[in-house]
Design goal:
By secondary structure, the protein is of the alpha/beta class. Helices cover 42% and strands 13% of the residues. The protein is built from 13 helices and ten strands. Strands 3-4-5-6-7-8-9-10 form an eight-stranded parallel beta barrel. The two termini are 32 Å apart.
Length: 319
């Protein structure tokens, strides 16, 4: 396993990490979650991503219980959570980054996780209704109180990240050190262009999600087929299906699969390795609803050094 620093932070995260979005509670029960996390950890994965909103808090409960049963020393693994959408109803509890919601959300997440702190806490989306100063103060206070060690953003624009950093510098507060954007062969603009000025200027790290573009880069949805038990077959994820199976994306995926076949490489593992090839990516968050998927995802470690200039160019120029 390769370990990379989280941007300019001293924390080192495994280049491939394990996330619980979609799977925990929806596709994965406690027993299977235990097996998946243990398998991931045995491979050297040390970063496990979560969020308050995943399965309405159940995902945190499952992950917390698994780590409790595994009895792995807390220093050995990294856990994150994220806040924005909320899981309870009320004027200060939904789609917000106000101080009251953030502080209450953090204490409740720690209870569900059965942990004293999380390593990384993210603002899951930007909140234009709350002053950025209020949000930055709250996130900095979380770290000051020991609830979290680092904080970051997820799907914020470059200008919003710069605003947050400016506020932190003005008041000598903790700065965001990481951004969690979607990044894959079909979704590249923000990471490769919009954020480009942030890397040298602020040393922002990236914990990217959806390396398989909701699974379609695995090749299993080619020609619009949706296998039973797959992510896109879930009724509560029907909103993903139409976009993921669009004709334009399918044409690109078919070309991509042919390139993978030319090199005798597994399409899913290659897609993960391609994300990790970007030097600004600290870790690529992967998911799995079966232990076998983790074994397949880890093949990306073998493929990463095989992505030479020629293959990288072919993948980058897919149209």
């Amino acid at each position: 396993m390769e370990y990379r620093r989280l941007g300019q932070a001293g924390l080192k995260v495994s280049v491939i990490s394990f996330g619980s979005w979609v799977t925990f509670s929806n596709q994965v029960d406690m027993r299977l979650a235990h097996d998946c996390i243990k398998t991931a950890y045995d491979y050297g994965i040390n970063f496990f991503d979560n969020a308050e909103v995943y399965a309405g808090g159940k995902s945190e409960e499952i992950m917390g219980e698994v780590f409790k049963k595994l009895e792995i020393p807390r220093l050995k693994y990294i856990v994150s959570t994220k806040f924005f959408w909320g899981i309870t109803d009320g004027p200060n509890e939904k789609n917000t980054l106000n101080r009251k919601y953030l502080m209450n959300g953090m204490t409740q997440s720690l209870k569900r996780l059965q942990m004293d702190y999380v390593d990384i806490v993210y603002c899951h989306r930007p909140d234009p209704q709350t002053p950025i100063e209020e949000t930055v103060w709250a996130m900095s206070d979380m770290i000051q109180r020991g609830y979290a060690l680092y904080w970051g953003t997820s799907e914020w624009s470059a200008s919003e990240i710069e605003q947050a950093i400016a506020v932190a510098e003005k008041y000598n507060l903790r700065k965001p050190v990481v951004e969690q954007p979607q990044y894959n062969l079909l979704w590249r603009e923000r990471v490769e262009k919009e954020y480009a000025p942030l890397y040298d200027k602020y040393k922002i790290g990236l914990t990217t999600w959806s390396p398989l573009a909701s699974g379609i880069l695995s090749g299993k949805y080619v020609a619009g087929k949706v296998p039973d038990g797959s992510r896109l077959s879930l009724p509560n994820l029907s909103w993903l299906k139409e976009d993921a199976l669009s004709e334009q994306k399918n044409q690109l995926v078919e070309k991509y699969v042919r390139v993978a076949q030319d090199y005798n490489l597994d399409p899913a593992a290659l897609a993960i390795a391609w994300c990790a090839k970007n030097p600004h990516v600290s870790t690529v968050i992967t998911g799995a609803s079966r232990v076998e998927q983790i074994h397949k995802n880890m093949k990306a470690l073998e493929i990463l050094p095989k992505i030479d200039t020629e293959l990288y160019a072919r993948l980058n120029n897919l149209k």
